[in-house]
Amino acid sequence: MPFDAATLVAYCFACILLIASPGPGQALVIARTVESDARAGITTAVGLQIGTLVHTVAAALGLSAILATSATAFTVVKYVGAAYLIVLGILTLRAAQRTAARESASAASAPTSASGATSTSVSTSASAPRDRRLLMHAVVTGILNPKVALFFLAFLPQFVHPERGMVLVQFLALGAILSILGVIGDSLVALAAGRLSGRLLANPRLAAWRERATAIVLIAIGLRLAFVART
To answer: What are phi and psi of 2, to 5 degrees?
Structure first.
């Protein structure tokens, strides 16, 4: 066995404390939930944790060490990630403007119940592409965060025992445990946010404001990432 019981318990406890601490990931999950629904938040949580697995593999293969020792590599990845989030936030702001225009036109025309049923059908059929889009955005967001790579480089080795062998398997197992716990924790956050904001989500007039809030969160996380230091 690559791990003993004491190591696993200590690692899981440390993971739970890390997951419970508020951070940009939780902020993004909450924003997506408020913008759409709990499913969108859970999809975002899964995407972020796929990014976690990518960083786990990178740490296991020693690629994270490049970010730790090369200021240029760290800076490039940092600014690419920041630019991605800021551009995504700007696009979301534009989408909010279009949503506001649609809501104004809808309020003026007073749609019938039949048209409302059609809208629900379209929304349901469009949920799969939306989920894929949210998942992709979350995966890219998780991967393009060099601070996470450095965190894994410093955190995971504390629980790896080279003398037990299968070092790569140990890294992957620890990363998988953290990812699973992360999905569970962030999904609970999404479900709670979905219940608390249920009335807001049911009000179509607030759709544009929900998108604006999400855009602000994305831009804020991007700006935060742009000013992250290596140490």
So the answer is: -75, -20
**Would residue 121 count as lying in a domain?**
no
b/e per residue 154-180 (b: at least 16 CB within 10 A):
ebbeebbeeeeeeeeebbbbbbebbbe
CA distance to 8, 58, 74, 84, per residue, from 63 (Å): 25, 5, 12, 22
* Pairwise CA distance, residues 67 & 146, whole Å: 7
Query: pLDDT digit string (tens) for 62-108?
Result: 766 776 677 787 788 778 878 877 887 888 788 777 766 766 666 56
Could you list the residue range(s) of the whole structural domain that residue 45 is in?
24-107+131-226
The answer as to whether 174 is a domain residue is: yes
Residue 230: both structure tokens together: 């290596």
Q: How many CB atoms lie within 10 A of CB 206?
A: 18
Domain tally, the chain: 1
Torsion on CA atoms 151, 149, 221, 128, rounded to nearest 10: -120
Distance CA 218, CA 183 (A): 20
